[in-house]
Amino acid sequence: MPRAWITAFLRTPLHLNKVIARSSCSLIPGEPTAPCLKTEIPGPNSKRLFKEMNCIQQAGTVQFFANYDKSLGNYIVDADENVILDLYMQIATMPLGYNHPAMLEVFCDKHNLHALVNRPALGVYPSEDWPRKLRDVLLNVSPRLPHVTTMMCGACSNENAFKQCFMAYRNRERCPPGSFTEEEKTSCMTNCPPGSPDLTILSFQNAFHGRTLATLSATHSKAIHKLDMVAFKWPMARFPQYCYPLDEFKCKNSEEDEKCLAQVEDILCQYKKGNRPVAGIIIEPIQSEGGNNEASPCFFQKLQKLAKQYGAGLIIDEVQTGCGASGKMWCHEHFNLECPPDIVTFAKKMQISGYFHTEEMTAKETYRIFNTWMGDPGKVLLLEAILKVIQKDNLLCLVQKTGQKLKCGLLELEREFCFLLDSTRGIGTLLAVNCTTPQLRDEVLKCLKQKGIQCGGSGTRSIRLRPALILQEQHADIFLDRFRSVLQCIK
């Protein structure tokens, strides 16, 4: 691809990259009305700080350094005072954007401050109000599952969800349940059967479930994540790869669903025959890191039936898709499953990490699911404030409205620049569009940043949106206007 257009674009005076924002009423008092750039990104201060940090810690992933005192709402301010409209939000982790008043007030409360600074080991010394917080905050938004286990991060949540599946599977095989033989107790200490059984977890092509050792065995998005890592020889199935637009390829995409489900059933059958049964199936409602790939409600409904038929726990990984970004609290709620999944993992926008689960998936013996902190009470306090704002400001409806505006705008750009873009897709604001080549995608993201727009990449050629729940239609207009101007430069 010629690079002349990118050179010309970067030489455009930065003040010409501004647009006049539509008149609007922001949900965050004092929020900027539009991006405003003073330097290129990264600017001189970010470049200086990069050199300083890189001497201490590998910093190759750093895009720019931020000023979190000045960042507000949907806008992040960098170390060079560039004001950037952020539609990526710390990799999908900021539900209310930057410095929301409700969040800033949380630790003004002295009791909440004590919960933060004393950081209890929740598995052994929880505070006296911890059971109430679990019930009133976390179980209050549970996807119809009766239990919750808190953890430290998304990967940690998925890792322990695997353990729950293994324990539940073996518990069903024992008679009576919960009785361990001396042989099992001895053999597990040397990593041998029967105490360390040869059970497996089924995951999907392009999946991302974390970077800890077991979750890496279920992660298949980028080689750089997995190189040199010892891996469990667990099965992987195809995730549906759809043709777009969906309404024009219903039959073809339905056939794709059936092919993928047939492969899942074949794996479940063959691994059971080979004495390496699948104890759990883990899947994202929308594959995020691996390309923002979606599958139909019918696919998920049939997958759940297969899991039940073969005695495998179904784990829905909502680490990136949960907490309202789909227009529902949980993305899998769009699938109309006949009953809840066995486990739903969460993190990111939820602030605290962990998983909801059925009674069957509950560990019956103490210390089987345990670590020093078992989560962070300070994060539950932040989540409590977030959930109140979601309800008060009706943010799930806002996500649906803004998401529709964004999706329609992306489809319009796809029609206008059909030689550059394709396959607009997603639910709510969990949206993505493909560029025709990986190189073009990378250049477009770079140019968007120079116009004051922060987005993310996904898969090999997708541009991924992961904005805050407070993103409004005027923010969508700014993004779409600047995206169009970038595409026009390429044209």
How would you sum up this structure in a few lines?
The chain has 491 residues and is α/β, with parallel strands linked by helices.
Structural category is alpha/beta
What is the average of the pLDDT values? 94
Q: How far is the N terminus from the C terminus?
A: 12 Å
Q: Strand portion, in percent?
A: 5-15%
Give unreliable regions as ranges.
1-23
Total beta-strand segments: 16
CATH topology of the largest domain: Aspartate Aminotransferase, domain 2
Overall number of domains: 2
The CATH homologous superfamily of the largest domain is named Type I PLP-dependent aspartate aminotransferase-like (Major domain)
In DSSP terms (H or I, runs of 4 or more residues), the helix count works out at 16
CATH domain class of the largest domain: Alpha Beta
Largest sheet: 7 strands, mixed
Q: Main sheet: which strands, in order across?
A: 3-11-10-9-6-4-5
CATH-derived architecture of the largest domain: 3-Layer(aba) Sandwich
* Helix coverage percent: 25-40%
Strands, helices and their partners?
Elements: H1 4-11, H2 44-54, E1 75-77, E2 83-86, H3 89-92, H4 101-105, H5 110-118, H6 130-138, E3 147-151, H7 154-173, H8 182-188, E4 200-204, H9 213-217, H10 223-226, E5 236-237, H11 250-273, E6 278-283, E7 286-287, E8 293-294, H12 297-309, E9 313-317, E10 343-346, E11 353-357, H13 377-392, H14 395-416, E12 421-427, E13 430-435, H15 438-450, E14 453-454, E15 456-458, E16 462-465, H16 473-490
Parallel strand pairs: 2-14, 4-5, 4-6, 6-9, 9-10
Antiparallel strand pairs: 1-2, 3-11, 7-8, 10-11, 12-13, 13-16, 15-16
Helix pairs in contact: 5-13, 6-13, 11-12, 14-16
